[in-house]
Amino acid sequence: MREAAFVKQNKEKWIAFEKAITLNSKISPDLLADYYIQLTNDLSYAQTYYPESKTLLYLNSIASQAHQKIYINKKETKNRVVSFWKYEFPLFFKQYHKTLFYTFLLFAIATAIGVISTINDDSFVRLILGDAYVNKTLDNIENGDPTAIYKSGGELGTFLGITINNIRVAIFAYAAGVITSIGTGYILFSNGVMLGAFFAFFYNRDLLFEASKTIWLHGTIEISVIVIAGCAGLIMGNSILFPKTYSRKVSFVKGAKDGLKVVVSTIPFFIIAGFIEGFITRYSNMPVWLAMTIIFSSLALIIFYYIIYPIRLNRNYAAGSY
Which residues cross the membrane (predicted)? Predict the structure, then answer.
């Protein structure tokens, strides 16, 4: 983009921001911070493509003033952790809903491949899940308890082990984005195929409902949040492949930070999923209505927090009622 076109495209935003910081306009601190982020992005772009230009000097000047106003006298809120999950993250995550949709689509396609492959060739599940796991599950089926594997081990030990393992998987799915979206895409695809093969294995033995009723107790949150962690990896991976107007380095740093925020947001949900698996899933003989209540409540929680709440909060923010 030519410098003149760059200036014409952004000058109104810069002027409004300059007035806000020099005239002490009544503007919310959060909105001021958003403007500052946009300004620093423009500054990075100008440093890359218009070095030693008057535009760069002008943006540097505004950025310096803004930094003084926003950060030097900034007071940390007393409840920073609560604020992150209640306001900061939902407001931030709305911009990545499209990435989340594509992440879910990739995972769903992979799951369908796992289902179709296992239904047509029952030996496929051994290739995906391993002989030891399949043989153990077949023994449990013969003993009349298809999901007995979830009843092994102590409750607390299972809770801690599952939670730590799930967080590790989420971090790995995110970190794989460092080799572009292909790395995270592979992890999502392989996990999707595994999930599809797993359920098709029970379908082939007319045990799909019984298995689903038990496994989705914890799996609803666990699988959903693994997909969301995959979204974090795609955010970082896409920042490398599609830097837009930023330099690739600036884009990558921004994508890595944004992806990390998404991963951090999943930690409480992995703890909930681990708790359910450790303390609740083992009671597979619970009434169907109770199992369905837990499953659909878990699904509603995920949909509300990651989709509905960010949309509502952004609308309220834009309307000035936040």
Answer: 100-119, 159-179, 186-203, 215-241, 262-280, 286-308
Please say if the pLDDT value at position 51 is more than 90: no
Q: Higher model confidence: residue 137 or residue 245?
A: 137
Determine the Cα angle at 79 with ends 75 and 84, to 5°.
Answer: 95
- Rg, C-alpha atoms of the chain: 24
Nearest to 174 by CA among 234, 225, 223: 234
Chain-centroid distance of CA 226 in Å reads 8
Could you give phi then psi for residue 73, rounded to 5 degrees?
-105, 20
What residue spans of the chain are helical by DSSP H? 3-22, 29-49, 54-67, 80-83, 89-93, 97-120, 124-129, 131-142, 155-175, 181-203, 208-241, 248-279, 288-303, 309-319
Predicted confidence band of residue 121 (pLDDT cuts 50, 70, 90): very high
Integer Cα distance of 181 and 230 in angstroms: 9
Distances (CA, A) of 115 to 120, 198, 213: 9, 8, 18
Beta-carbon contacts of 95 under 8 Å, excluding residues fewer than 6 positions away, are none
- Quick one: CA torsion of 11, 313, 97, 110, rounded to 10 degrees? 170
Which residues neighbour 220 within 8 Å (Cβ) at sequence distance 6 or greater? 295, 298, 299, 302
CA 103 to chain centre: 9
CA distance 272 to 285: 21
Would you kindly state where each structural domain of the chain is located, as residue ranges?
3-75, 92-319
